Amino acid sequence: MNSRERFLSACRFLATDRVPVWAMRQAGRILPEYRALRERRPFVEIVRTPELAAEATLQPVRRFGTLDAAITFSDILVVPEALGFAYHFKEGSGIAMERRLDTLAQIDALPPPELVRERLDYIAQAQRIVKDALAGTKALLGFAGSPWTLALYMVQGGHFDDGARLRDLAKNEPAAFEKLMEKLSDAVAQNLLLQIEAGGVDAVQIFDSWAAYAADDYQGLSAKWISRVINAVGGRVPVIVFAKGLDDYGILAGTGANVLSVDSRLPMSVVRERLAPQKIVLQGNLDPAVLLETDLETVRSRTRAVLDDMAGGNGFIFNLGHGVPVGARLEAFAAMLETLEASKK
Q1: Is 3-342 a domain of CATH 3.20.20.210?
Q2: Which residue numbers are catalytic?
Q3: CA distance 180 to 203
Q4: Rounded Cα gap, residues 334 and 331, in angstroms
Q5: pLDDT score, position 90
């Protein structure tokens, strides 16, 4: 069973020879070869240049053979950018959008989703390069931001405190909110379909990074729109949903996702118990802070604890509870993966 077979078998709730593993933000940050690339090229240029994005995607799976999947090097904000809301990074203050969406006229003027697909073709070009390099040995994942999370960036103008502007729009101008979310959902769907049909990815993940800001009405504000995206994907590939900070995994299961990615606040077995008798695949959920550890035995024991918590059943993909953190130690990442490899049956 090679890595691609292992990962896709787990997505179908089938038995595997060991638990498959990949890590959110494995492409970048932790790798000296990526940092060398970043010294020569800015982040957004790497994202938009197929050869550079392919190189960044392949770097972690070249270095760590245990990884079962490569995740496309890109950014969730490519969809707003394709809709006319460019983004950039401000030193010390995070993401900023070139302009803010704050009028109904701007919502009406958003381009059709088919144009988004055309403008994002560079992603599929990078994925085809990666697919050729992987030659069927490892899974290739695509991704997109959730409509809710993307709307937050657009309405707030970039980095924000609590998403109040978008919640106010939903409450006070529901028709405008619905129109915005419909357009964003269809744009996200076209992005994912591009990655599936033209890029050849094996699975996709939807990142609802700001799910917690919709928690009071998650179904209406976010889950409804994730469902629209998943319906558009139409079962072509497995869909993973990661909703950071959300406690109700039942709502997430109701979106139609094949895999739910779990953050680090709850044991995986508790989430599985809450979802019973549904047989839905879970992904996660080692605390990313473990990768900052200098004591490698601590890394190994914490990794084993997650494996032991989910032992005895199918439908589990090992990952972090969020992305690889700034300052993560290469040796700690390697120790985590060695522990996974040692668990092979």
Answers
A1: yes
A2: 25, 29, 38, 75, 153
A3: 26
A4: 5
A5: 67
Task: Tell me what percent of the chain is helix, strand and coil, each rounded to the nearest 5.
Answer: 50, 15, 35
Place of tokens 């995607």: 57
Q: How far is CA 257 from the centre of its chain?
A: 13
Burial bucket for residue 299 (CB in 10 Å: 0-12, 13-18, 19+): buried
Return d(Cα 25, Cα 44) in angstroms, integer. Answer: 16
**Are the C-beta atoms of residues 262 and 270 closer than 8 Å to each other?**
no
Question: How far is the C-alpha of 215 from the C-alpha of 218, rounded, in Å?
Answer: 5
Calpha distance 109→344 (Å, rounded):
53
For residues 126 and 327, give the distance between their C-alpha atoms in angstroms, rounded to a whole number.
27
User: Residue 167's CB: how many other CB atoms inside 10 A?
Assistant: 18
Q: Tokens at residue 154, please?
A: 């657009």
> How many whole angstroms separate alpha carbon 114 and alpha carbon 271?
37
pTM of the model: 0.96
Which residues of the chain fall short of a pLDDT of 70? Answer: 90-94, 159
